[in-house]
């Protein structure tokens, strides 16, 4: 069995090596080295066994070190040489591997296909394709035929170096030599074209694969999805994913994740949610980033119940959504006014041991204060402190906003002082909220005083603060101060926004300075801002106020009017006695899919009443009733005020309306008007 050893010792060594698996490869290597030191060597099969195990374990250096030890007493055969070549190539020592191959030939051991494949693979790994092809040709000259592995390695090497034409040539040669490429070869080609971004060729290879009777597998499809995502052809990626689902193939998390992110970006939330559920069915855990994106997207598009259901489904599957995802859900629920559901989520989080953070509390506090429920906001801030979470500037800003909404300005100022006392630095937004509070509570001068204090202290003053003051002064008609602030804003390098211009346009229009408002529209364009429907509506309102209805043709402005725009125009035409035109505008409004509200109907009803077109006013009331709009009592009274002769008609119509007939004030007015008109029969009934 052994060279340079008696047969008895050789057998014993061999037996030890046979059982080395029980003790581990390290013991086997030590045994080889010890007995080699005594010039005793195991047989070839045992040598090959040890070498192969070392290579499989990734211990390449030890493998060829053992080879150097063994070759001193064992004449290596083709298998031992090939294993050594493989170890050297895998360790990046390709030149040494080629030297061993030359040595093989010198000692009369002919390299086989596997030997050459190892060298070719090694050369491809170090990106020396030219030598790899030379070795392929050398191999052929030696009478060896390249194998499927040879061609696969060369194709992979070409693709990694983006030599796609060469890869195609190798594939053609491979087919010509009678080899049918397998899934690995095709997938390698597809992967290469995908990395290049040539998705057309990638699909062609996929189709060629199918024509050869090979079914594209999970690797094929996942590779294509990744390629389409990289090429930003997400529609195609989605189609491939759908195809995989229909075929029941294994889909990796990366494929799902890429497509779902894109679907969320494109607002295709139903498809995104469906794919998330498919992931869960396959026991694939969506990562935190993906879950946050999906939950936020669902909430943004009004699918709050779906977002809540997904959150609870994750808990059922023992996948705990992280605090960021949970905060996104709470924020979405609060934004939609569904605070009850948000509190339910919060309680569940506490029960499940979630560590609530400042964002969680700030979201809830912000919503309560936004809805002027500052008492609940303060209660939550106290609970926040009990949980060991210190309020930050945003917490105080939300609470200040809540107090401002309730008109409690003194308390708001005190809370700002407390914020400073706690060592926090209120930012421009905090001061902006306080200034806005003063302005909305008719204390513009106090708001201006806070502004002046900021300026004197060289503190940041942003567009929000300027816009707040400009809007306030424009509302009260003080355009001189509004313009002064506007110029001051620009002098400090703060760019006016659409809101800035909108406030000024409103101010000028309300003061009858419509031409000045028109100049501002042009200035907006010069500053690179597109006047929006709010700006044009303000301008139209100014023209309507002045009775200049000939200047309010909407097509001149090139805008899509909204409900307010239409209402302003209807009111304007009614005020100059052109109710027929106003009625046509109402029809246009409805044709454009904009539903009139009570204010719109009231504007037209007022116009009809003033022109004593009572039947048309009544028809309008019927339309309002059918649409579910509530008629204001004052307008019913105005109809009665329109004419006494038609009071009985009014009464009959009102009697049939469940919404208006129940109003005591309306009946009282009806009674008086009917009595004045001597309609005693109706008076008796009404009484």
TrEMBL record:
Output the superkingdom of the source species.
Eukaryota
Q: Which residues form a coiled coil?
A: none
Could you identify this protein by its name?
A: Pentatricopeptide repeat-containing protein
> Spans of the PPR repeats?
77-111, 112-146, 147-181, 182-216, 217-251, 252-286, 287-321, 322-356, 357-391, 392-426, 427-461, 462-496, 497-531, 562-596, 597-631
The membrane-spanning stretches of this chain are none
Family in the record = Belongs to the PPR family. P subfamily.
Signal peptide residues on this chain, from the entry's feature table: none
Tell me the keywords, alphabetical order: Repeat
The record's listing under PANTHER family reads: PENTATRICOPEPTIDE REPEAT-CONTAINING PROTEIN 3, MITOCHONDRIAL (PTHR47941)
Q: Name one Pfam family in it.
A: PPR
């Amino acid at each position: 069995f052994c060279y340079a050893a008696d047969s008895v010792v050789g057998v014993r060594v061999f037996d030890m090596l046979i059982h080395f698996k029980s003790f581990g490869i390290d013991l086997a290597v030590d045994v080889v080295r010890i007995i080699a030191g005594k010039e005793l060597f195991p047989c070839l099969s045992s040598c090959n066994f040890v070498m192969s195990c070392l290579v499989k374990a990734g211990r390449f250096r030890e493998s060829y070190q053992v080879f150097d030890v063994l070759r001193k007493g064992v004449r290596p055969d083709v298998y031992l040489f090939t294993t050594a070549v493989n170890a050297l190539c895998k360790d990046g020592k390709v030149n040494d591997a080629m030297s061993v191959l030359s040595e093989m030939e010198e000692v009369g051991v002919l390299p086989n296909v596997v030997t050459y494949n190892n060298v070719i693979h090694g050369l491809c790994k170090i990106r020396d394709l030219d030598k790899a092809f030379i070795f392929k040709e050398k191999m052929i000259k030696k009478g060896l035929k390249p194998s499927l592995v040879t061609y696969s390695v060369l194709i992979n090497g070409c693709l990694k170096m983006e030599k796609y034409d060469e890869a195609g040539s190798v594939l053609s040669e491979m087919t010509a030599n009678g080899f049918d490429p397998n899934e690995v070869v095709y997938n390698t080609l597809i992967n290469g074209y995908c990395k290049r971004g040539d998705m057309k060729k990638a699909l062609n290879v996929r189709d060629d694969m199918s024509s050869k009777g090979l079914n594209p597998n999970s690797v094929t499809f996942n590779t294509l999805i990744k390629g389409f995502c990289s090429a930003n052809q997400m529609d195609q990626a989605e189609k491939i994913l759908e195809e995989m689902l229909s075929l029941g193939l294994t889909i990796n998390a990366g494929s799902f994740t890429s497509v779902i992110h894109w679907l969320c970006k494109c607002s295709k939330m139903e498809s995104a949610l469906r794919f998330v559920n498919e992931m869960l069915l396959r026991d694939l855990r969506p990562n935190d980033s993906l879950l946050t994106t999906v939950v936020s997207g669902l909430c943004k598009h009004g699918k709050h119940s779906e977002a809540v259901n997904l959150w609870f489904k994750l808990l059922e599957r023992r996948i705990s959504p992280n605090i960021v995802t949970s905060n996104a859900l709470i924020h979405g629920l609060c934004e939609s006014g569904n605070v009850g559901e948000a509190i339910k989520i919060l309680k569940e989080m506490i029960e499940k041991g979630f560590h609530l953070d400042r964002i969680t509390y700030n979201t809830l506090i912000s919503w309560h204060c936004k809805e002027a429920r500052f008492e609940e906001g303060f209660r939550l801030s106290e609970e926040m402190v009990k949980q060991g979470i210190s309020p930050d500037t945003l917490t105080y800003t939300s609470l200040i906003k809540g107090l401002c909404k309730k008109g409690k300005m003194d308390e708001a100022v005190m809370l700002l002082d407390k914020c400073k006392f706690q060592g926090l630095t209120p930012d421009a937004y905090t001061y902006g909220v306080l200034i806005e509070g003063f302005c909305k509570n008719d204390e513009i001068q106090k708001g201006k005083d806070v502004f002046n204090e900021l300026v004197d202290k060289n503190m940041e003053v942003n567009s929000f603060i300027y816009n707040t003051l400009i809007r306030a002064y424009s509302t009260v008609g003080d355009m001189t101060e509004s313009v002064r602030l506007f110029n001051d804003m620009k002098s400090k390098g703060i760019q006016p926004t659409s809101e800035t211009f909108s406030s000024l346009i409103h101010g000028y229009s309300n003061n009858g300075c419509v031409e000045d408002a028109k100049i501002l529209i042009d200035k907006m364009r010069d500053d690179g801002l597109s006047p929006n429907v709010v700006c044009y509506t303000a301008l139209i309102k100014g023209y309507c106020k002045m009775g200049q209805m000939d200047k309010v043709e909407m097509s001149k402005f090139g805008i899509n009017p909204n409900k307010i725009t239409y209402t302003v125009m209807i009111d304007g035409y009614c005020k100059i006695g052109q109710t027929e035109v106003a009625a046509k505008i109402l029809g246009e409004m409805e044709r454009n899919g904009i539903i009139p509200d009570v204010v719109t109907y009231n504007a037209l009803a007022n116009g009809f009443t003033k022109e004593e077109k009572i039947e048309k006013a009544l028809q309008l009331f019927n339309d309002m009733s059918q649409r579910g709009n509530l008629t204001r009592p004052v307008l019913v009274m105005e109809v009665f005020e329109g004419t006494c002769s038609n009071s009985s008609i009014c009464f009959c119509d009102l009697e049939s309306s469940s919404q208006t007939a129940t109003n005591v004030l309306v009946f009282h007015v009806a009674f008086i008007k009917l009595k004045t008109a001597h309609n005693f029969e109706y008076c008796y009934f009404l009484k």
